[in-house]
UniProtKB/TrEMBL annotation:
It comes from Handroanthus impetiginosus. It is found in: Endoplasmic reticulum membrane. This is procollagen-proline 4-dioxygenase. Coiled coil: none annotated. It comes from the Eukaryota. InterPro entries: Oxoglu/Fe-dep_dioxygenase_dom, P4HA-like, Pro_4_hyd_alph, Pro_4_hyd_alph_FE2OG_OXY. It is a single-pass type II membrane protein. It is an enzyme of class 1 (oxidoreductase).
Amino acid sequence: MKIKGSKIGGGNRVSLGLPSIFLLCLFFFLAGFFGSSLFSQQETPGNIKPLMRETAEEKKIEFEALQNGETGEESVEAIPFQILSWYPRALYFPNFATAEHCQSIIEMARAHLKPSSLALREGETAENTKGIRTSSGMFISASEDKTGILDQIEAKIAKATMIPKTHGESFNVLRYEIGQRYHSHYDAFNPAEYGPQKSQRIASFLLYLSDVEEGGETMFPFENEQNMDANYDFRKCVGLKVKPHRGDGLLFYSLFPNGTIDPTSLHGSCPVIKGEKWVATKWIRDQEQDEEY
Ligand SMILES: *[C@@H]1O[C@H](CO)[C@@H](O)[C@H](O)[C@H]1NC(C)=O
């Protein structure tokens, strides 16, 4: 009992020191708290929040504009993109144009739509190529659009590609209704099939003007050299598929840097299953285009 008592007594002595223990605890708690946060910042940069702050700071540094040249621009512009593939060289530009601009382009094109045509190869006629490309479309140049929207989009495409707008053909605005499609094809013209070319298409920029509920994907059946055997059926929707999304842009290069045609740039439009697909296409050439474009 006494022993217990003395223990209790000891307890009493301890209880006398409680405030100091309390302070000690507080000290260690605070030391541990700040110490750990210091530790986590210095030793674990993988920690999500510091990493996010770091990238934000990195971006700030990246975005500091340099003294521009006489033909340059004062501000730094962000045009985000994703590399969709290297074979073909395809980039995706989310939110390239606003929904309002897309709708305006649809409205300006709607009244002028005609069945889309094809560049014909030897032996091909409108009759025997019927069904390859079943969309409707129209051509409109930026200068014909008095609202200035196409001008703005054309300028942005020139920035994103760094190919001057004088190298672009007119916009080809296309509508694909249910069941309509474009079988796989090349945008570039192989001289062996089409004869000598005054200029060649380097790249294509597709601006999706509408969402499509189902189908209507842009497909690259030979992406990464898949399906490239002789058995590929040009109607088949396989390979890399890009689902249309209003306002987003898709850029791909038809030519290698050495000017020959990239076989993996073969592409088509899968049939629309539900909804309607609207797209504005800009073909970009290696030569400046005449006024007629
Ligand atoms: C052009 O470039 C491609 C891709 O790098 C290459 O496969 C091809 O052999 C080249 N062709 C010529 C004629 O140099």
